[in-house]
Structures are given as C-alpha cells and as structure tokens.
Amino acid sequence: MIRKYSYGVPYDTEAVVGAYEIGMDLPSWLTVEEEGRRFSCLLAEEEQVFGLGEQVRGMNKRGWRYVSWCSDDPYHLETARSLYGAHNFLMITSPDRTVGLFVEDPGRVTFDVGYTRRDRLTIETEGDGTALYLIEGGGPLEVAKMFRQLIGRSYIPPRWAFGYGQSRWSYFSAGEVKAVAEEYRKAGIPLDMIYLDIDYMESYKDFTVNGETFPDLGALAAELKEQGVRLVPIIDAGVKVEEGYPVYEEGVQKGYFCENEDGTPFTGAVWPGWVHFPDVLNPAARAWFGDWYRVLLDRGIEGFWNDMNEPAIFYSRARLDALEGERRDAVAAGKPAREALASLQEPVKQLSNRLEDYRSFWHNTPAGRLRHDKVHNLYGGSMTRAAGEAFVRYAPDKRLLLFSRSSYIGSHRYGGIWTGDNYSWWSHLLLNLKMMPGLNLCGFLYTGADLCGFGGDTTEDLMLRWMALGVFLPLMRNHSAMGTRRQELYRYPESRKAFGEMVKLRYRLLPYLYSEFMKAALRDELYARPLAFLFPEDPMAREVEDQLFIGESIMIAPVYTQNAGGRYVYLPERMKLVRFRTAETWEEEVLDKGHHYIPVALDEVVFFLREGHLVPLSDGGGCVEAVTADRLTLLAFGEGAAYEFYWDDGVGVDYEAPEHFKWLHAGTSGEVFHEYPGD
Ligand code: GLC
C-alpha cells in the first residue's frame, strides 16, 4: 500500500508518475514535527535501513547522517555526507516488517539514520514543502517494486552500452583515439565504446569540436563504428561565455540561463572559464538545450555522458571579488603582500560549490521563479532529462546511451548514472559493490563506477580485481583522470591476457546480464540485490555487505583487498561455485551452505550459481553486435533448471513484444549443453 502525505507547499519534482490521494492519518510509528520539516521513528535493534542511492558507507545505511545535496566531491570518504546524487528513498526492514519512505523535496534533506541516537531515524527538510510517500506491504523485494512502480520505468540503454568501454580524461586527438581502438584490437580485447572527455571540444565549449585535433568527428565516429566501437562524448552543464558562440548567444537572447536576482545571467567558472548555466528547470530552456545535442547526433554520435551538473562551480564572480576585497583589506591593514596572499590560502580552498553561490541565482520553473538552493537537487537530473526528452523527439524508435554524474529520483527515467570521481583505492572497489543495491532501489539500474579508479595511480592487481567485479555491472567503463597512471588494459603485458579473458567473459555472459537487466527494468525490479533481501530470515545473510546477487541466478563475492589470494564467502544456501580461468574454460564445484574460504587467483573470475537456476552463455564476440543468441551454452545447477531469457534487437523500443521472452531448460542431469530457442 502506498500513502501520500503533504506538508506546506511541495514542489512537484515529477519524480512520481501518476496521482495519489493525500492521506490523513499517519501511522502511529511515525512522528511529524515542525509542520512537516521533521519526520522521525524508532529503529528496532534488528531493523536494517537500505536505500539513499549514491552514498558512502554500507548497504545497510544505519549509523551515519547523510545529506541529500548534490555535490561535486571527489573524495568519497567515509566522512562524506553527500555525493553527486540526491536519492531520498529508504527502506526499513526486518523479518517482521518492511516499510519504504520517499521524501519528495528538491532542496536539502538530512537523513539521520541512527547517528544521533542509535535507535532513531530522523529526516529533516529545509524547504517550503514536502510530500512524503509511505510504502508498506510484503518484504523488501515487494516494497522495492512498489516504490519503483511509483516512480516509473528506469532508463533502458541500447544493448551495445553493455559492452566494455575505455575512457580517459586526456585523449587529445582523433589519432590518439584511433590508436586506443587499434591497441585493443591488436590485444584481442573486445571493446564497444571509447569515451571522449572534454578534450574533444574547442575551448571546452559544449556542442563544439576542436577542428585541429578532431578534424572530422563524423568520419571518426563512422570509421570506429565499422570496427564495432562507438564514440561517446561528454557534455558539461556550463556554457562558455564567449561572443560569437551560438549556444551562449542564443541562451542569453532567449533568457534561457539561470539568472541573478536582477534577471541578468548568473556567471560561474568551470572548465571553460566563465560560464552560464542553462535553466533546465524551465521546460522551454530544457527543450532548447536538449536540441543542441543534435549537433553531435547528426555526426553519427549515439551516446553521451553529462557532467559537472550538480552544478559544480569552481568559483563565482562574487566569490572572487570578495576574495580580492579581503586581499586588499589585508594589504591596507599593513600586512606585507606575501603575508596577505598567504592568509588567503584557506579562503581559496573554500571557493568551490558555495552555498552563498547556490543562493544567488534563480530558475524560471513551472511553479514560478525559485532560488536555486530550494531546488538544487533537481539540476543535474534535469540536464539528463533535457537530453533524454530531446532524444525521444529526435529518434523516437531508437535507444541512445545517456548517463549523468548528478541525478535525482525521477531522472532515472531518462538516463543512467556513473558514480563520479572515485579513486584507485581498494576501498572504492568495495564501495562500488556496496552502492549498487541503493542505486537500484532508487531506480538507477544502468550504473557503475569508474573501473580501476579515476583519481590517483592505479595498480595492476587492483585493476584485475576491479575488472572481475566490472564484468557483472551494467555500465562497464574504465575511466581515469589526466595525469594519473594509464589504465588501458593493453598496457599491462603481464595481465593483458587475463584482462582479455575477463572482458571476453563479459561478452559470453551478455545474454544473461542483458536479460536480467531488461527484466528488472520492465518489471520494476532490482538487478543487484543484497543477500538480506533474499534471505531475510537468515541472520548471517542479513549482515553480508560484500557480496551481491546479480539477477536471479548469480551471486558474486569479489576480492577487494590487496595481496589477498582469496576471501571468505558466505553461502546462504547450497550453491555451485563456477570458476573461469579463461572465457572458454571453467570449473565447477558444489558447496554447502555456510562460510567457505575461496581462493581466487588474480586472473580468475568466480561466481556462485543458485540451485534450480541457470546462466545462458553466448559464444562471445569482439563487440556486442557480434554477440548472438543463436547458440547458447546453458550453465546450470540442478535438474530441471529453467530460465526466462530476454533477447530483442537491442536498439528498438518495442520492449514488451512476447517474442522477446523465451524459456530455456537445462537437461535433466543439469549438465552443460546447447539449446535455443527453448519453450
Ligand atoms: C569531472 C568528471 C570526470 C572527468 C573530468 C574532466 O571530474 O567527473 O569524469 O574526467 O571532470 O572532464
């Protein structure tokens, strides 16, 4: 059952699809104070809290105070309160009851999940109105599904977006990009995407291409596509202030940028220097900005990543002027120039992403003119929406790839997300795994982290372990920052073969991973599930934070510590261990329920198969389009294992056609054999 409660004058974020009656009586376990600005309830000792999407810490969110406030914070430390997304849904669950709470509020929302008091959840809002949705009925899987039905179907990318992608901030020319594709080909490692970071643009101006370094982007895209590789360029939120640049000039002329209080465009600084931010909360401006993607779509581009859309502001004019004022005051007060400058070091560090700046510009929203901080969390997701809506106008029958850094619940219908600037740290490999269920609960199915780590120098063993996790995640992209150690897989002669086998295995697993993704999207279910959701009665399973079910058949338990030759794994039931040494060969071993030490060599990928289930494997391919479902190898555990297989053309939008669903059955002895199509 879903009940809606309304306090003050809530802003309609359009997160929810459909209309809900406003309930009157709150259940007795939930207290509301301060006219809807504070909600609280007791948490019983055995209750766990899941959700909140892109956040630090565990799958079980108990024991920290989280703040929904989209933030450009590259450190993702345990002490962080906010990351790039604002995902205001959580679920309280124990074997006795499960309830879901969704706080529809576009401003700052604080979730104190047993932080101030271990036995209390307190949610605080700061805006002029909040809508609260309460979901009750059934266990975690049912509540999760009800919530997802409330917020509408998750974004579905084209199938090629499930391939492996190589990215790096600093592919400076077409030649360099071609060389990356060439090296992958030479190494025999499948590849579907090369991402273009801001380096392809002219002076970091959106919807421009640097004519010297990328003289013919259309030709480059076509040449690479011939090889099965798509180019996926970045688009940033800020539009460079520059006379003669049409996006800037048109935006100013139409009044489509975020405004200062006096109506002039607000100016901040990001990569291009001074920029204006398109007012994507204004439907007309959103349509206008979305239409600009055509410049690249018309050159054969079929996918984008939207960045810096919290929006990140390195500094504003006002902040810079204030700083200069402070320097002048210090000099006037007789401080030597050098000392005056030194005293500014701290203030300089504090220049970025300031609340004062977010309080100084305005949007023209359907609900009237609103100050940015009141609707801050909608900005990045609305940029995704701008692109997503434009893609439907441009190519209604075709799926395009789109994912974003910043997001809110609601924007999950328009694009996926990546989890931003992580580090090449072992702790971030684990964080990648831990974030998955929260993201899925909040509607983000097409998601993943920068594999092998974005910031800092990676290590070969971290890359191997991280890739072994990446094999199972929808967005499988290796991305790294300029100046860090290079992370292209072919650069590591000792591990090149192992990397190749892992990526090939991904393509062999594609029929399974894609089926599971599509079924999860079409049925509002989870792709990645914690053990607690499937075995709520098992106290051991409930506490597992470093293993995940990927779809219905597979459990993964990646190794995430350096110099470890394996790890302990908890099996909540009898399962079949499947160990891939190469993409072609594997070993199987049936293990009983309980704890097991599982040795896993650096070049191996291991997963656990549920009894009565199976995994269809393809013959693989050098790119997703080369993978067919004409011949499937069924990797099964148990007699009569059956599987509902989904396969369509991978690019169209006729998702529900009955011919896309087929039943596959393992042989009576459960051995591996070939069969397709089944019935
Ligand atoms: C931001 C993005 C990162 C990108 C960089 C340069 O930090 O999160 O992925 O590489 O900007 O565009």
In short:
The chain is of the alpha+beta class.
SSE blueprint and pairings:
Blueprint: E1 2-8, E2 31-33, E3 38-42, E4 48-51, E5 64-68, E6 85-86, E7 89-93, E8 98-104, E9 109-113, E10 120-125, E11 129-136, H1 140-151, E12 164-166, H2 174-187, E13 193-196, H3 217-226, E14 230-236, E15 239-240, H4 246-254, E16 268-270, E17 273-276, H5 283-291, H6 294-297, E18 303-307, E19 315-316, H7 317-332, H8 337-342, H9 345-349, H10 355-358, E20 362-365, E21 368-371, H11 372-375, H12 379-394, E22 401-404, E23 407-408, E24 416-418, H13 426-441, E25 447-448, E26 450-451, H14 460-470, E27 476-478, H15 496-522, E28 528-529, H16 531-534, H17 539-542, E29 548-550, E30 554-556, E31 566-571, E32 575-580, E33 586-591, E34 594-599, E35 605-610, E36 613-617, E37 633-637, E38 642-646, E39 661-665, E40 673-674
Parallel strand pairs: 6-23, 12-13, 12-27, 13-14, 14-18, 18-22, 22-24, 24-25, 26-27
Antiparallel strand pairs: 1-11, 2-3, 3-10, 4-7, 5-9, 7-8, 8-11, 9-10, 15-17, 16-17, 16-19, 20-21, 28-29, 29-30, 30-35, 31-34, 32-33, 32-35, 36-37, 37-40, 38-39
Alpha-D-glucopyranose binds at residues 169, 197-198, 234, 307, 405, 420-421, 479.
